[in-house]
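We emphasize that the prediction below concerns an isolated chain of 338 residues; any contacts that depend on oligomerization or on bound cofactors are therefore not represented. The input was used exactly as deposited, without trimming of termini.
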Amino acid sequence: NAAQAQTPSHEKKTSTKSTGPNGEDVQENKKHVLGVSKVNPPLNEKGMFYNSKWDPLLEQPPFNRNYQTVLDIAGHYEEHIIDQSPEDAYGDLSLFTLNLSSTISTEEMNQQSTLVLKQVLDHIHPSVMTLQGIREPLMARLKKIINEHYQILDYDSFTKDSLSAANYYNPIIIDKKIFSVKNSGYMKNSKGVIYASWVELSDHRNNQIITVINMDLFSTFRGVVESQFANIIADIKGSKEQSSNPVFFMGGLGSISKQIENLLHSGYKNVIDVDSHNLDLDKTTVHGKVEHSDDIERDFIILRDPSSIFTINYGRILSKNFPVADHYPVHAILSYTR
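Result of the prediction step, given as a token string:
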């Protein structure tokens, strides 16, 4: 692979201090971050989240009891709390991941993708959104939709594809009303190619630390994927703070080796496997905009949670009429274990 990870030479890494939820100083890496968190709400006893209109089970019991209400959910792009959320909203975190890689890039495609991602922020209200395969023109558009509610990280370094010469980014978007940023960065192979971005976050509501790994491991060679995933895990285990707190692996694993499969059954939780409502659903995530189904999940939200901080309430591949990308997104809702 002749691709190379690059950082624009004119950008300098600077850190400034801002005030955290308890008045403490918080370091912010301005190289990776747009925006500063301002509001620190308490944990919502009612719960804040719900299934989306792209859920393939939305019209089936028991999810259909709020069918029209779910279709009408909107307003989270600007507002953290809205009036029209379902009465039985639940969960403390909402996670969303999507791969938007494409062999071509047109202005119309980028405009549509931007509108849909803004709609996801408005409708699903993700606490964390990880994106893979973002080309430079789309990245430029995404930076413009960031507001007082949402913050974008890991948007400054890219991997150049040797065949198309396109620059690919793996940004992470977070809800500033929930999280502040402790640290962020990238994971690269020996050739300097970025295969993951990451962020370490602190929850304003309870000071819980979580780490989010935004993976883009789409090599067709299982050995390459296995090696890169093993490197990510080794880095996590090498950090005392990260290894003792929850870690979310979000994004793509192009092929699953026996070793990775064993790992997913030994303390690492795939949200799609945990949610029993997925038993009879197709697991295809890479569909290629055609009626393609191989029942293989290649896009994931995986939780490593050694202290059982979280309960996984919901996990779904959003395969019902999602309007953009060759991949279906994955959506999860979790609650803190009280």
